[in-house]
UniProtKB/TrEMBL annotation:
This is DUF6590 domain-containing protein. InterPro entries: DUF6590. Residues 4-147 form the DUF6590 domain. It comes from Glonium stellatum.
Length: 159
């Protein structure tokens, strides 16, 4: 099952003056001279491996989509929530170099992915199946093949 979900995420190394992704809440941690960023991060399951799933992150990059400096644009693609027949959001001027086809998510409830949401197929995280998470929706059946193909290409696998 290729679920899109959100989890509470903290990153103690982030420089909060640069800004996080959406809904960041910095919390001072004075004794360590650090200010971690606590936020909801979104992920999409790309493979299930026994008691854990391999997932790729979904980020908005401060509303810049895949235009953020330093990204491997070719590893990114649009991911969006919408009902059957809905179209993906327009690319930002300059994102035309993205080669991955957009993937649609059928939402579970009212949560929608930001129009700048980009899925980073080149970065994989492992999550145990027992983690607390909030479901956002499921990748639609017609886009499951694209999701798998995009991920395998970014990871250097031959499809």
């Amino acid at each position: 099952m290729n679920i899109v979900f959100g989890v509470i995420w903290s990153d103690p190394r982030r420089n909060i003056s640069l800004g996080g992704s959406e809904r960041s809440t910095p919390i001072p941690l004075y004794e360590y001279n650090a200010q971690p960023c606590i936020e909801i991060r979104r992920f999409c399951v790309v493979a299930n491996e026994g008691p854990f799933s391999q997932c790729v992150p979904i980020q908005i990059y401060r509303g810049q989509g895949a235009l953020k400096q330093g990204l491997l644009v070719e590893d990114h693609g649009v991911i969006y929530t919408g009902r059957a027949g809905s179209k993906p959001p327009d690319l930002f001027l300059g994102e035309h170099v993205m080669t991955k086809c957009a993937v649609r998510v059928e939402p579970d409830g009212d949560e929608v992915l930001d129009y700048a949401s980009r899925i980073n197929y080149g970065k994989t995280y492992n999550f145990d199946h027992g983690i607390k998470m909030a479901s956002i929706g499921l990748v639609t059946p017609e886009h499951l093949g694209l999701l798998s193909k995009n991920w395998k290409e970014a990871m250097g696998w031959r499809a």
